[in-house]
Every structure is written in structure tokens, then in C-alpha cells.
Amino acid sequence: MTTLITGAGLVGTSFAICALARGEKVVFLDPIPREDYLDSRLGAGSYTLIAEDARHLPGVLAAIEEHGADTVLHTTGLIGKRAEDPLHLGMDLNINATIAVCEAVRLAGVKRLLSISTFGSYDWRRTAPDGVMKEDFPLGSGTAYSNTKAAQELILEAYSNRYGFEVAIVRPANVFGMGHFWGGSGGGEKCHTLVESGIRGVPARIPEEQTMSFEYVYSNDIGRALDLCATRDLARYNVFNIGIGAVTTFDELVAAVRASLPNLEIEIVPGTPPVSRTDHMDIGRARDVLGWEPEYTLEAGFAAYVEEMRSALGANE
Description:
Elements: E1 2-6, H1 10-21, E2 25-29, H2 35-42, E3 48-50, H3 57-67, E4 71-74, H4 87-108, E5 112-116, E6 132-133, H5 144-163, E7 166-172, E8 174-176, H6 186-200, E9 204-207, E10 216-218, H7 219-231, E11 237-242, H8 250-258, E12 266-269, E13 280-281, H9 284-290, H10 298-316
Parallel strand pairs: 1-2, 1-4, 2-3, 4-5, 5-7, 6-13, 7-11, 8-10, 9-12
């Protein structure tokens, strides 16, 4: 069994850890060399890496057919403000890569396509009546990132309806863990800064706009959710919220890091005031259909993150 993963980042490698543990072969498709990062997370020689752009249909199709992939995980995309700087690049990568991947899946006869969306795909200009966002809440908040992720989901649904292959879409909260953050995850980079600064014993400089209340999920939990999406019997089309099921304030986030790094110092860099969210995602569907619940509390997730970061920094110094 083989899974092709577009994008060699935190989410893809978190799934790959689970897939490799059950004997799955994993092939990454990414135009930027990522061997150092992949080796650090997965181990040298445990994966195949193809230098290819997910927007290039012939290249994606060739990768699927050459390696006999029966599952595809699509993670390629730009996040947050990166998706609008410039806007046409965010639209091109987030939408056209999805179309190319869907076409390749159709042409190759792949049975199941997994795709990473985001809790940012919801229309956060609205408020859920009970303060909880379920999977049927309206999508698209008007930003490039939100609207392109909503468009991705609609494209996936249309392809699944027309051609019959299975789709599982995961909408994670802000994922934290050992990533490289090329895609533009401001929240992920913030968590990285907190952990690395705490280990190094220097103040963590956090932009003011990143001090908002937010919902998080540790990377191991998102990897496990994707692995369940890849291996469980599912309906043809599925959407799952994946988070801890609660909103975390910045002070609570810092406290969770300080549980492992008690001497962490914070320096807030003045700038744009934060926009906090009070609604959180409902994770009941993931629990009921996948049998998934988060295994890591915020503190436990950061404890594991600190351990992995210490190991990585020790190897590089």
C-alpha cells in the first residue's frame, strides 16, 4: 500500500509517521528540497521524495502511477496572509493544485483522496448560535485563504460526485509541532518561537496580532486523524473538524508552554491588535465516525514538542 502526499510539511509528515508505523509506503511530492526536514521527522531512507509541483498534472499523475499509490493526501497550499501576497499566487496554488490533484486521482483510478482544509474555511464573520462550529456551518470569510480553502472543498465535492472516488476533508484547528512553516502558518510559527526561545533561554518575540484567542491541535493528533481517514470504511464524501474542542487564550497558551519551559520570557512586538475568536469547532463527527478524540492536552502536546525540538537543536549545534 502506498500513499502519495503533496507537500512535505508538518501535517504530511505527521500522517506519514502513522502510515509508516503500519507498513505503508509514503511518497512526497514537493518542488522544494525537504530532505533535511523529512529525515529529521521520519528518518533517512524511510520515504520517497519527488521534486514536482502539485499544479503540474502530468507530474502528479506520473508519480501516482509510478509508485502505485492507492491513496493521495493533498496538503499543498498557502496559509493566512501568505495566500494573498500576492493574491494571484495564493489563488493559483490553492485552487489549481487541487484541480490537478483531483484530475490525477480520477485518471489514475485512486480510490480515496484525503485533503487538508482548515477551521479558517468557516465564515468567521458570523457567529454560531450555540458558540460551536459544526461541519455544516457556512464557509468563506472573504479572505484569500478562507475563500480558496472553501473553493477547494467545493471542487473536491464536485469531483467526487461526478467521478465517484472517495473524499475525506479534514478541517484542523491551528496545528502546532515541528514544522518549517514555508506555507505561512502564523500560529504554527508563533508556537515554534515560544518553544525554541524557551529552550535557548532568550525572550520569545511575538507579534501583537498573534496574541489572540485561538483553537489549537497538536500535530500527532492531526496525523492520527488522517490515518483513520485513510484506513476506516467511510461514506464517499466526508468532512471532519479536528481540534481540542475549545478556544485557548494567549495566556493559557503561554502557561501550557511554561509547564515544560518555566523560564520562558515573552516580548510582545507592538502592531496590529489581535482579533480573537470565541466560537470553537464541534468534534463530535470525528468521534462518532472515526473513533477519534484528541489524545494530547495542550500541555502534553507542548511537552512532546519541547522534547522533539531539544533533540533537533542538539543535532544541529
